[in-house]
């Protein structure tokens, strides 16, 4: 095997963390993948993966080989595009992770339009109910809300966004509107169980003043769409992102509450692991995605 074949094979195995899945993508048998991986480790003189019966994990040497090897593969792709005068037409595979609600509403339609414009690109969109590790799961790009806590992660702001407290007019008519955040303890709040955030804890700020409220109510879910539906039905007070409820606010189906209090930042970012610079395919996709999301806000 040549070095680039080794790199491509290892990148594929690292992305799937499973020999059978990597073999299916290549159209070969798992034993053949295992044999090639063993030959690569023998040639390098180090172990690159830890094998279990169901899943692989990368060793420290494997992480180094993957991180630096991925940049080499991207450089090779860009070189080939430059030589063939097709740099403006990115090629290759991108694996993208996003949340179910935002992914269905905005990322999937944007990918459809991207595919029409750049037919040489392959995009794999994987939707999850909570963020996953790009490195451990082999994703090139993730769509995230709020602050980016890990300084090792590169992030680009795609869209400014805020979270809003809201309820249906029918609920407000029956139960009144909270005047201060602590009034929420006397209301039926629709609680979303997501990520690793404290369940039912809402954080507010106004100027230098902050207030944390432990809310509760008869209905809760791990799905934001379900919470929104309950809010529209007048079942309680919810916290939702502006991108999701803007049209309902415009139609009067929901009304904003506690408008002079701010909730934690919910800006939408594209995050990626590459340390030094973006590959052509990733840069083109992020640019396109940012333009698409901005356009969707202007047309809303």
TrEMBL record:
Gene3D superfamilies given in the database record: 3.40.190.290, Winged helix-like DNA-binding domain superfamily/Winged helix DNA-binding domain (1.10.10.10)
Pfam hit, one: HTH_1
GO molecular-function term, one example from the UniProt record: sequence-specific DNA binding
Keyword terms of this UniProt record: DNA-binding, Transcription, Transcription regulation
SUPFAM superfamilies xrefs: Periplasmic binding protein-like II, Winged helix' DNA-binding domain
Domain of life per record: Bacteria
One Gene Ontology biological process: DNA-templated transcription
InterPro entries the UniProt entry points to: LysR-type_TF_proteobact-type, LysR_HTH_N, LysR_subst-bd, WH-like_DNA-bd_sf, WH_DNA-bd_sf
UniProt domain HTH lysR-type: residue ranges: 1-59
Family: Belongs to the LysR transcriptional regulatory family.
Record's protein name: HTH-type transcriptional regulator DmlR
Organism: Paraburkholderia domus
